[in-house]
Amino acid sequence: MEVGEGGRERLRERLRAGGLEDVWVEIPVREPLAPQIEIFSEAGMEQFGIDLSQLFAGFPVPPKLKRMTVREARQVLREEAIDRLVNQEEIRRQGIKLAEESGIIFIDEIDKLALGGPEERYGPGVSRQGVQRDLLPLLEGTTVRTRHGTVSTENILFIAAGAFTLAKPSDLMPELQGRLPIRVELHPLSEEHFQRILTEPEDALTKQYKALLATEGVELEFTPDAVAEIARAAARLNRALEDIGARRLITVMEKVMEELSFSADEHVGKRVVIDGEYVRTRLQGLTEDLELSRYIL
């Protein structure tokens, strides 16, 4: 059925006014070709150097008619228009430039590579020293092939961290130590640190539990003395047991909130206040019996 110019204008006005959002339409949609082939090499997928999805970039993709509402079609057409405006090559070039000039690579638990020391010539030590040798050219500056192109690591900042409870930094290969010249020792977290971790971040544990219980219709509030008591318990357990840093807050909070989480349906529509006395009651005995805390907290 053909629509005259006047009818098109009326449809256009209704579309702009949002009166056709739930009307079903069919629009042609171009779906990207997704190859179902995976090729593995000894160096791994990243070092293979070929992005298979790009092999089909120059081939025309026939559009398919899809049935959806005007509201959904608007989003699909908007994304297609944005894709046509974006210069992927320029984005890739700028990304590689930013990585080379401002990139930071953080290597965690590097102390695991130091176990046994440089004299260990058999067993797991062979693999540990092999990993250290593989890190040497990256720290010194080399060119790495990625799916987006080659990246030079010459100006990338490398930061390595480890607990070093069973080993010491001097157990690493001398060549690796020389490529990490600045050494900083961090102090254990204090009660004040734990209190800030519990309250200041956007995804702090106290805020997470508030949001979680809000889904059950429960309004939750932590008083300052409750936060202080949780921080005090976490700091004491870290001193007495293995120091696991801020992860200790997760186990302590889980124990404090355990009963309330399971009985949340009994407090629907109510306001629950967690104070210092409540925290002490929930943790009573556990923070004093260190042998029991070892398995629970």
Question: What does this molecule look like?
Answer:
The protein has 13 helices and 8 strands. With about 300 residues, it is of the alpha/beta class. It folds into 3 domains: about 80 residues, no CATH class; about 80 residues, Rossmann fold (3-Layer(aba) Sandwich); about 110 residues, Orthogonal Bundle (Helicase, Ruva Protein, domain 3). The strands form 4 sheets. Strands 1-2 form a two-stranded antiparallel ribbon. A hairpin with a 2-residue loop joins β4 and β5. α9 runs parallel beside α11 and α11 crosses α12. The longest helix is centred in the middle third of the chain and has 17 residues. About 5% of the residues have low confidence.
Properties at a glance:
alpha/beta; two-stranded antiparallel sheet; single chain; 297 residues; Helicase, Ruva Protein, domain 3; 3 domains; flat; 13 helices; Rossmann fold; 8 strands
